[in-house]
Automatic annotation (TrEMBL):
Keywords: Signalosome. PROSITE patterns: PCI. Coiled coil: none annotated. Belongs to the CSN7/EIF3M family. CSN7 subfamily. The keyword Acetylation does not apply. This is COP9 signalosome complex subunit 7b. One of its GO terms (cellular component) is COP9 signalosome. Pfam families: PCI. The lineage of its organism: Eukaryota, Metazoa, Spiralia, Lophotrochozoa, Platyhelminthes. It comes from Schistosoma haematobium (Blood fluke). Residues 1-127 form the PCI domain.
C-alpha cells in the first residue's frame, strides 16, 4: 500500500481513483476515510475519532505524524517541541527528533533542530494535498504575495534611481572641483608672470590642499606693492572662493 512509502507525502491521485471513490460509502468506508486522512488530515484528527478509521500499522502512524509536522510547518516557522508533543502524542524528544531528522533527509522539510531552545526552526516545507474549497484561499494568498513582490521591486527600483542620482551628483561635483583647481592654476601662472617670483612662488599642489595659504600670500603681496587690489588679485581671490566652497560640498549652483 502506498501509505508505507517513505518519500511519499501527497495522496490526492489515489483518493481520486475510481476504485477508491467506490468505497466511500459502505463496508469499506473506513479505508476511504483513511486515505482522506492522509491527504488532508493530521494525527490529532485520528486521535479524536479513531472509530472512523481502521487500525493503523506503526509505519502508517509514523507517516501520519510526519504529515502533521509538515502541516504545522506551514503555520509557523518556529515550532516548540511542547506543541508537537501534544499534537503527536509524543513524550520523548528523541522520538520527535527522529521523525524530523527523517523529514530533513527526505527533503520534506528544510531547517534545523535547536535542542537548547527545544524548537524546530523551519525554512521550508513541501506542500500537501489541497482541497477544492481551499483553492480560492490559495489564490488570495498568491495575489497577496504578488502585491508584496511588486512593492519590494518598486522600492528596489527607487533605491537604484536614488543611488544613480547621487553618483551623478558626486561625479558632477568632482568635475567642478577639478575645473576650479585648473582655473586657479591658470590664474596663478598669469599672476606669477607679472609679480615678483619670490613673493608668489608656491607649490601648486600645496595651494590646492591649503587654499587659505594662497589667500594670505595674495594679501601679503598686495599690501607690499600697493593698497589697491588689482583685477588679477581679485580674479584669483574669486577663483579661490569658488574652489573652497566646492571643497566644502557646495556646488556651483548653490553659490
Amino acid at each position: 500500500m502506498p501509505l508505507f512509502s517513505r518519500g511519499l507525502f501527497v495522496f490526492g491521485e489515489f483518493l481520486d481513483h475510481p476504485k477508491i471513490k467506490s468505497i466511500e460509502n459502505g463496508e469499506y468506508s473506513q479505508y476511504y476515510n483513511l486515505m482522506n486522512l492522509f491527504c488532508y488530515g493530521t494525527f490529532e484528527l485520528l486521535s479524536t475519532n479513531r472509530s472512523a478509521y481502521p487500525d493503523l500499522r506503526p509505519t502508517q502512524v509514523r507517516k501520519l505524524k510526519q504529515l502533521s509536522i509538515i502541516d504545522e510547518a506551514h503555520n509557523q516557522k518556529h515550532i516548540p517541541y511542547g506543541l508537537l508533543f501534544k499534537k503527536l502524542d509524543i513524550a520523548s524528544s528523541r522520538e520527535l527528533e527522529d521523525l524530523v531528522i527523517e523529514l530533513f533527509y527526505l527533503k520534506a522539510i528544510t531547517g534545523k533542530l535547536d535542542q537548547q531552545k527545544a524548537l524546530l526552526e523551519v525554512n521550508s516545507a513541501i506542500g500537501r494535498d489541497i482541497r477544492i474549497e481551499q483553492i480560492d484561499e490559495l489564490h488570495q494568498k498568491l495575489d497577496s504575495w504578488g502585491v508584496r513582490v511588486e512593492s519590494v521591486l518598486a522600492h528596489i527600483a527607487n533605491e537604484i534611481k536614488m543611488v544613480n542620482e547621487r553618483r551623478y551628483e558626486s561625479e558632477l561635483h568632482q568635475k567642478e572641483i577639478l575645473e576650479a583647481s585648473l582655473s586657479i592654476k591658470e590664474a596663478l601662472r598669469g599672476q606669477m608672470a607679472k609679480s615678483d617670483a619670490q613673493s608668489l612662488r608656491m607649490d601648486m599642489d600645496d595651494i590646492l590642499i591649503h587654499p587659505d595659504l594662497l589667500e594670505s600670500r595674495v594679501e601679503a603681496t598686495r599690501q607690499s606693492s600697493s593698497n589697491t587690489e588689482s583685477v588679477g588679485d581679485r580674479d584669483v581671490r574669486n577663483r579661490i572662493t569658488v574652489f573652497k566652497n566646492l571643497r566644502h560640498g557646495k556646488s556651483s549652483k548653490q553659490q
